[in-house]
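Input C-alpha coordinates:
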Protein backbone atom coordinates (compact mmCIF):
# COMPACT_ATOMS: atom_id res chain seq x y z
CA UNK A 1 0.00 0.00 0.00
CA UNK A 2 1.44 3.37 -1.04
CA UNK A 3 1.52 6.42 1.22
CA UNK A 4 0.81 9.76 -0.43
CA UNK A 5 3.15 12.24 1.25
CA UNK A 6 2.69 15.91 2.06
CA UNK A 7 5.58 18.37 2.49
CA UNK A 8 7.57 17.55 5.62
CA UNK A 9 5.87 14.20 6.21
CA UNK A 10 8.15 11.28 7.10
CA UNK A 11 7.52 7.59 6.44
CA UNK A 12 9.53 4.59 7.66
CA UNK A 13 10.87 2.32 4.95
CA UNK A 14 10.53 -0.82 7.07
CA UNK A 15 8.66 -3.61 5.29
CA UNK A 16 5.06 -4.16 6.47
CA UNK A 17 5.81 -7.74 7.55
CA UNK A 18 9.05 -6.78 9.30
CA UNK A 19 12.57 -6.35 8.05
CA UNK A 20 13.95 -3.46 6.06
CA UNK A 21 14.01 -2.55 2.43
CA UNK A 22 17.19 -3.41 0.59
CA UNK A 23 16.66 -2.07 -2.93
CA UNK A 24 14.51 0.93 -3.86
CA UNK A 25 14.02 3.09 -6.88
CA UNK A 26 13.06 6.73 -6.96
CA UNK A 27 10.98 7.47 -10.04
CA UNK A 28 10.35 10.95 -11.44
CA UNK A 29 7.57 11.61 -13.92
CA UNK A 30 6.26 14.75 -15.59
CA UNK A 31 4.44 16.13 -18.60
CA UNK A 32 4.96 19.42 -20.37
CA UNK A 33 1.97 21.76 -20.46
CA UNK A 34 0.86 22.30 -24.07
CA UNK A 35 1.51 25.86 -25.21
CA UNK A 36 -1.11 27.87 -27.03
CA UNK A 37 -0.02 28.27 -30.59
CA UNK A 38 -1.26 30.26 -33.52
CA UNK A 39 -5.06 30.56 -33.71
CA UNK A 40 -5.48 28.99 -30.24
CA UNK A 41 -4.17 25.57 -31.24
CA UNK A 42 -2.20 23.65 -28.65
CA UNK A 43 1.44 23.02 -29.37
CA UNK A 44 3.53 20.39 -27.58
CA UNK A 45 6.76 21.47 -25.95
CA UNK A 46 9.73 19.56 -24.59
CA UNK A 47 10.94 20.14 -21.07
CA UNK A 48 14.11 18.47 -19.82
CA UNK A 49 13.74 17.77 -16.11
CA UNK A 50 16.67 16.06 -14.42
CA UNK A 51 16.58 13.86 -11.33
CA UNK A 52 19.67 13.78 -9.12
CA UNK A 53 20.62 11.93 -5.95
CA UNK A 54 23.05 13.63 -3.58
CA UNK A 55 24.81 11.51 -0.95
CA UNK A 56 25.70 13.28 2.31
CA UNK A 57 27.70 12.20 5.35
CA UNK A 58 26.74 12.87 8.99
CA UNK A 59 28.50 16.26 8.91
CA UNK A 60 26.42 17.41 5.93
CA UNK A 61 29.29 17.13 3.46
CA UNK A 62 28.54 16.04 -0.08
CA UNK A 63 30.17 12.61 -0.39
CA UNK A 64 29.01 11.74 -3.94
CA UNK A 65 26.37 12.59 -6.51
CA UNK A 66 24.41 10.79 -9.21
CA UNK A 67 22.96 12.83 -12.07
CA UNK A 68 22.82 12.84 -15.86
CA UNK A 69 26.57 13.52 -16.15
CA UNK A 70 27.52 10.84 -13.57
CA UNK A 71 25.06 7.96 -13.82
CA UNK A 72 26.65 5.85 -11.07
CA UNK A 73 27.96 6.59 -7.56
CA UNK A 74 31.65 5.84 -6.99
CA UNK A 75 30.77 2.68 -5.05
CA UNK A 76 27.96 1.59 -7.41
CA UNK A 77 25.18 1.62 -4.79
CA UNK A 78 23.23 4.39 -6.57
CA UNK A 79 22.56 4.28 -10.33
CA UNK A 80 20.67 6.63 -12.66
CA UNK A 81 19.07 4.80 -15.61
CA UNK A 82 19.54 7.71 -18.02
CA UNK A 83 18.44 11.19 -19.00
CA UNK A 84 14.94 11.77 -20.44
CA UNK A 85 14.96 15.01 -22.42
CA UNK A 86 11.20 15.47 -22.95
CA UNK A 87 9.06 13.81 -20.26
CA UNK A 88 7.06 12.05 -22.96
CA UNK A 89 5.43 8.73 -22.17
CA UNK A 90 3.62 7.26 -19.20
CA UNK A 91 5.04 6.41 -15.80
CA UNK A 92 8.56 7.16 -14.60
CA UNK A 93 10.53 9.35 -17.00
CA UNK A 94 13.77 9.14 -15.01
CA UNK A 95 14.73 6.50 -12.44
CA UNK A 96 17.44 6.33 -9.81
CA UNK A 97 18.03 2.87 -8.30
CA UNK A 98 19.48 2.59 -4.79
CA UNK A 99 20.92 -0.53 -3.18
CA UNK A 100 20.45 0.55 0.45
CA UNK A 101 22.53 -2.33 1.84
CA UNK A 102 25.57 -1.17 -0.13
CA UNK A 103 25.32 2.57 0.51
CA UNK A 104 28.63 3.38 2.26
CA UNK A 105 28.37 3.51 6.07
CA UNK A 106 29.55 7.15 6.12
CA UNK A 107 26.54 8.21 4.00
CA UNK A 108 23.61 9.10 6.26
CA UNK A 109 21.28 10.90 3.84
CA UNK A 110 20.33 10.63 0.19
CA UNK A 111 18.65 13.78 -1.12
CA UNK A 112 16.69 13.66 -4.37
CA UNK A 113 16.36 16.82 -6.43
CA UNK A 114 14.77 17.78 -9.73
CA UNK A 115 15.64 20.72 -11.92
CA UNK A 116 14.80 22.04 -15.35
CA UNK A 117 18.04 21.89 -17.27
CA UNK A 118 16.50 23.87 -20.12
CA UNK A 119 15.40 26.55 -17.66
CA UNK A 120 11.61 26.45 -18.01
CA UNK A 121 9.79 27.05 -14.74
CA UNK A 122 7.36 24.64 -13.12
CA UNK A 123 4.32 26.56 -14.39
CA UNK A 124 5.02 24.77 -17.68
CA UNK A 125 5.01 21.30 -16.08
CA UNK A 126 2.04 19.16 -15.03
CA UNK A 127 1.44 15.72 -13.53
CA UNK A 128 4.87 15.81 -11.89
CA UNK A 129 5.62 13.28 -9.14
CA UNK A 130 8.36 11.37 -7.42
CA UNK A 131 7.78 7.94 -5.96
CA UNK A 132 9.69 5.34 -4.03
CA UNK A 133 9.29 1.71 -5.06
CA UNK A 134 10.46 -1.50 -3.37
CA UNK A 135 12.57 -3.04 -6.14
CA UNK A 136 12.21 -6.59 -4.83
CA UNK A 137 8.40 -6.56 -5.02
CA UNK A 138 7.68 -3.72 -7.46
CA UNK A 139 5.32 -2.22 -4.86
CA UNK A 140 5.08 1.56 -4.59
CA UNK A 141 5.91 2.56 -1.01
CA UNK A 142 5.44 6.32 -1.12
CA UNK A 143 4.44 8.96 -3.65
CA UNK A 144 4.96 12.69 -3.50
CA UNK A 145 3.12 14.84 -6.02
CA UNK A 146 5.23 17.79 -7.12
CA UNK A 147 2.22 20.04 -7.50
CA UNK A 148 2.23 23.78 -6.96
CA UNK A 149 3.30 25.22 -10.27
CA UNK A 150 5.32 28.38 -9.98
CA UNK A 151 8.17 30.49 -11.20
CA UNK A 152 10.83 28.15 -9.75
CA UNK A 153 12.73 25.77 -12.03
CA UNK A 154 13.95 23.29 -9.42
CA UNK A 155 12.80 21.45 -6.34
CA UNK A 156 14.36 19.55 -3.46
CA UNK A 157 12.00 16.56 -3.63
CA UNK A 158 12.73 14.20 -0.77
CA UNK A 159 15.42 12.64 1.36
CA UNK A 160 16.05 9.09 2.48
CA UNK A 161 17.87 8.97 5.84
CA UNK A 162 19.37 6.30 8.03
CA UNK A 163 16.88 5.73 10.82
CA UNK A 164 18.29 3.38 13.45
CA UNK A 165 18.91 0.08 11.66
CA UNK A 166 16.76 1.03 8.67
CA UNK A 167 15.83 3.98 6.51
CA UNK A 168 13.05 6.57 6.37
CA UNK A 169 11.85 8.95 3.67
CA UNK A 170 10.89 12.58 4.24
CA UNK A 171 9.00 14.58 1.60
CA UNK A 172 10.63 18.02 1.34
CA UNK A 173 9.07 19.75 -1.67
CA UNK A 174 11.14 22.93 -1.27
CA UNK A 175 11.24 25.14 -4.35
CA UNK A 176 14.59 26.36 -5.63
CA UNK A 177 16.30 27.85 -8.64
CA UNK A 178 19.06 26.20 -10.64
CA UNK A 179 19.76 24.24 -13.80
CA UNK A 180 21.93 21.54 -12.13
CA UNK A 181 22.28 20.04 -8.66
CA UNK A 182 25.33 22.25 -7.95
CA UNK A 183 23.08 25.33 -8.03
CA UNK A 184 20.73 23.62 -5.53
CA UNK A 185 23.27 22.84 -2.80
CA UNK A 186 22.41 25.89 -0.64
CA UNK A 187 18.71 24.94 -0.75
CA UNK A 188 19.52 21.28 0.00
CA UNK A 189 21.75 22.08 2.99
CA UNK A 190 18.77 23.68 4.76
CA UNK A 191 17.10 20.23 4.88
CA UNK A 192 19.96 18.07 6.12
Amino acid sequence: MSVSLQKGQKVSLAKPGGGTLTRVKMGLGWDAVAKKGLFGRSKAQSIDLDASCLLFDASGNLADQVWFRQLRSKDGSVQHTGDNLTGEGEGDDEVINVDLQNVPANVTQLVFTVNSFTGQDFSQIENAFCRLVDETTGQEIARYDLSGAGQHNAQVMAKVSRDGGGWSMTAIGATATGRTFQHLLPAVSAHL
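The chain has one domain: 9-190. The chain has a mean pLDDT of 83.
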